[in-house]
Amino acid sequence: MIQNPLPWPHGARCAVAFTFDMDADSILHLAHHTSADTRVAALSMLRYGPEVAVPRLVDLYTRFGMRQTFFLPAWCMERYPAAVETILKGGHEIAHHGYLHEHPNACEPEQELYWFQRASAVIARMTGQRPRGFRAPSYRFSRATLDVLVQAGLAYDASLLGDDIPYLLENDKGQIVELPTHYAMDDWPHFMVSRDLAYMMSPKSPQQAMEVYQAEFDAMWEYGGLWIAVWHPFLSGRLARCVAMAKLIEYMHAKGQVWFATLEEMAAHVKRVIADGTWTPRVDRLPYYEGPIPELGPATPMLAR
Ligand SMILES: [Zn+2]
Asked: Under 8 Å CB-to-CB from 181, ≥6 apart: which residues?
């Protein structure tokens, strides 16, 4: 089912990382700059992430002896230093997720670089280490993002959805390890409801969401894949969902032969097996297109709406 499976450490059947994007209220300020301060209920829902969910999640993973990767917009780090301290104390990795959750593909390349460098400096100052990995806010990887990551010497990107196992992203400037996920593994489509952010979907029960995550895990376990969840503390750190999360972790441990690791450790493993010749990755070359496809010129009438 997977054409080019890679050897996981200790003979594991698959690799698993629960990653958490602690966006807090950055997304509300980004969406409603001049009125976010007046949207108190929405702020309280989003602040639940750093204030309540992060300590709970760190406790949970300490109980299981697991370390995870947390992606934090740097503005959230400055705003919620206690959450940063809790995450670091738990031994987890903090990775790059923009400054204020700005969308790289809505930025000019020099703006993108400015926010990237500003956020990197905050991470270096508050964690004592430069960031090793990046996830584009809202998956908005731009045509310039790979250049920025290569130039900054990052070890991996975790923004894209192009495979079931790691692969290499490459352009004229260089290469980076891609650790992919996909939307079914994100908690947003399962749980997000917010009038202020215009998401009015019916939330799934924790069990329904876990059914999706578990099916993904079972398939990855069977065929040697990479299971990366993209979860938000303010969504998945809610009590009933956290209880279900603990059951899923127990299920994974009981099934066994799983490599639990941070994304930094996964990227290092990928580089190791490439270097020692035990695995040859698929290489995805960017950009996919130089611009809008020529078949639909500017004068072509709309063919779909
Ligand atoms: Zn985010």
From this structure: 19, 158, 161, 228, 229, 230
CB of 132 within 8 A of CB of 156? Answer: yes
CA of residue 284 to ligand 1 center, whole Å: 24
pLDDT digits (tens, 9 = 90+) for 204-256: 999 999 999 999 999 999 999 999 999 999 999 999 999 999 999 999 999 99
The sign of the dihedral angle between the CA atoms of 73, 264, 132, 143 is negative
Flag whether pLDDT at 299 surpasses 70: no
Rounded to whole angstroms, the Cα distance separating 69 from 90 reads 11
Side chain identity, residue 197: L
Does the model's pTM come out above 0.90?
yes
**How far apart are alpha carbons 112 and 303 in whole angstroms?**
33
- Residue carrying structure tokens 């702020």: 43
CA distance 260 to 209: 21
CA-to-CA distance for 238 and 206, rounded, in angstroms? 10
Question: How far apart are the C-alpha atoms of 260 and 267, rounded to whole Å?
Answer: 13
Residue 30, pLDDT score? 96
| pLDDT higher than 80, residue 120 | yes
| All residues with CB under 5 Å from ion ligand 1 | 21, 23, 137
Mean pLDDT of the chain: 96
User: Ligand 1 centre from 17 Cα, in Å?
Assistant: 16
